[in-house]
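Structure in, sequence out. Go:
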């Protein structure tokens, strides 16, 4: 089946899907990946949904556990969740 639409957009979508897949299969156990997820409080809404299309729930859970750990630390300190965290829920 032929891809319709902008070839650049099609490449970006394909590359995004590949990067998410690589992240879940190869980088999920890397401490640096966890630090990035903690600092950013996870992916944006668009890429977060794309991540769920990868069907690797265990790796997604591992990455977002790091995010939730940071959110819980903030809450324990009496800090309110950031706007970024509100977008996740």
């Amino acid at each position: 089946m032929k891809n319709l639409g902008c070839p650049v957009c099609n490449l970006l979508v394909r590359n995004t899907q590949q990067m998410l897949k690589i992240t879940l299969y190869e980088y999920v156990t890397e401490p640096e990946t966890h630090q990035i997820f903690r600092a950013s409080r996870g992916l944006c809404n668009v890429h977060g949904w794309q991540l769920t299309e990868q069907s690797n729930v265990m790796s997604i859970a591992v990455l977002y556990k790091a995010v939730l750990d940071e959110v819980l630390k903030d809450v324990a300190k009496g800090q309110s969740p950031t706007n970024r965290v509100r977008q996740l829920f």
